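Input record (Table S2, row 317):
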Amino acid sequence: MEKYFTDVSEFVDYLELPSELKSRAEQASQKFSFKVTKEFASRIEKGNPKDPLLLQVLPTESELLEKKGFVSDPVGDRNASKRAGLLQKYKGRVLLVITGSCAINCRYCFRREFNYKQVPKTTESIEGNLRLIEEDNSVEEVILSGGDPLMWKNMELEKLFKRIAKIKHIKRLRIHTRLPIVNAKRIDSGLINLLSKVNLVIYFVIHSNSCNELSPLVIGALKRIKSVGIPVLNQMVLLKGINDSVEEMEKFLRLQINNHIQPYYLHQLDKVNGATHFFVPVSKGRKLISELRKRLPGYAIPKYVYEKKGFTSKFPL
Ligand SMILES: *Cc1c(COP(=O)(O)O)cnc(C)c1O
Ligand code: SF4
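Output record (pyridoxal-5'-phosphate complex):
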């Protein structure tokens, strides 16, 4: 069975949604293609156009709206690029983009208009970027990003991890991925085995935004990662109609800490073209956080941040 839905029309039918949605979705998906795993789709409630998982993946006509302040490169990725696929904004850690593909296309993605064409996507072609990292002693952490680094096959990842571990000043490897959330089976024994053997301190930073994303299957996959001593942190994006209510957020954060998933960042939406309808004002985000503090332990509260161009870290809100 094919793992993905890439045809919006088929997806709309599968979810028993009104067929009017199809033509609008098809139009919007010409700018940023539609893609979702069948596993993620199976957690969407049928016939519910407001399902929080559905809203993250279904292209809509709102994406075609233009709004002042919404741009193609909201976080200044282009200026931060040392070379295609190598970004550094912050001291001591570099972002290595190793693929442009993801298992799911999130409609609010800040890299929806990122140019992945020139990014080196194989162990061999990444070598140039690794040499640059090698020359810079001040870097101690490599963050694998994309796209989604776990789109790579285990064998290729193993080669890359080993190569990174050879760089003396690199102490930590961070993997930014949404794959455990959208295709839990990707966390297979081969991957766990190779993660357990890498001679680097590894951190997993996953990305999920609402309760139903953390199904029992997903939680099981995350457990396997933690079983080899790798901490799992979650980052989320504040999204209108998806997680911008105190009740939903409280439930979601509680679900995380009850499963040893450490809430990390709550990102204020990056103002990328096509994502205007997901916008939640900072004032509302701040209120949400202060309400959550009254209801949950301190370690359950994510850092509410914004990616500000030219700043030396994520900007705390
Ligand atoms: C977000 C980000 C990081 C990681 O920042 P942390 O605060 O360490 O999580 C690193 N590099 C770039 C370019 C980033 O956008
Ligand atoms: S998984 Fe991450 S990089 Fe990929 S589309 Fe979603 S937000 Fe963007």
